[in-house]
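User: Please predict the structure of the protein below. I'd like the answer in C-alpha cell form so I can feed it into my own downstream comparison script.

Assistant: Understood. Taking the following sequence of 294 residues as input:
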Amino acid sequence: MIELLVIPANQSQRRPNWLRVKLPVGKEYASVRGLVDTHKLHTICESGNCPNMGECWGAGTATFMILGNICTRSCSFCAVSTGRPLAVDLDEPNRVANSIKLMSVKHAVITSVDRDDLKDGGSIIWAETIRAVRRESPATTMETLIPDFRGIWDNLYRVCEERPEMISHNIETVRRLTKQVRVQAKYDRSMEALHRISEFGLRTKSGIMLGLGETEPDVIETMQDLANTGVHVLTIGQYLQPSKNHHPVMDWIHPDQFAKYKEIGQQMGFKYVESGPLVRSSYHAEKHLFDQVV
C-alpha cells in the first residue's frame, strides 16, 4: 500500500499554512491593476480570484475567457455558471485583442467555456481571436486552453491551424474520478485531443487537480497516459472547492507530495513540470515556451 502525504479534509477543514499567499504588490502589478480598473477589462485572473494573480501580472502574463461566461457543461469542480449560453459575440475577438494590447501583455493565456450548443464548438471565434491578437500585438505569445470540442476533430484542427505557441487541454482529474468530476467529459477523448494536438507538431500542455479523492497510483497512471500522448508541459495543483455546492476537497496534499510528482514527471520525459499546492493551469505559463519541442 502506498501512503500519500495528505491531510484528510474532513479532519481539518481549515486550509493548511502552505496554501496561504502574499497580497499582490509591485510596480508592474499596480500598473496592470490600474488599467483593468480604468478600462473595465475582464480577466479570469481577477474574476477567478487566482492566488497567483499578482505574480503573473508582474511577469506580464494574463488570462482571458472567450465565448461568454455560461458553460454548457456542469463539471462538479468548476465555478463557471451552467446553462444556455447567450448568442456568440462576433466582436469579442477584437475586444480581447484590444485588451491585450492596452495591458501590454507579453504572454496571453486564452480559455473558454464549453459551447456544445454550437456546431463549430466555438472554434471559429477561437481562430478569429488568435488572428486578432496577432494583428494587434504581434510580439505577444499565446497559450490557448481549449475544450475537447466533443471529439469533432475538424473544430480542434481549426484552432491548431492558427498555430498558437501553446495549446492546452486539461485532463483535470484521474480516470477513476472523471465521470463524477467532469460529468460530460470523457477521459479517453481528452487524451485523444492532446495526442492529435501533439501530432500536429504543436507544444501541448495539460493539468491535473489533486485532493479530489485520487490515490498516488491513480495520479501516476494519468501522468503516464499524458506522457504517452506527447504532452510536453504538465501542471499539478491543489483543488480548492469554489462553494459548498461543488465537489468537496477530500485531501490537502502536502508540498512534499507535489515535489515527488514533479520528480516522477521529469523522469517520464515531460519538458516542463509545475507541481505545487498553488499551481494553476496558467501558472508560470510564459516559462513553458521552450525554444524547441523534441
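That's the full C-alpha cell string. The first helix runs from residue 27 to 39.
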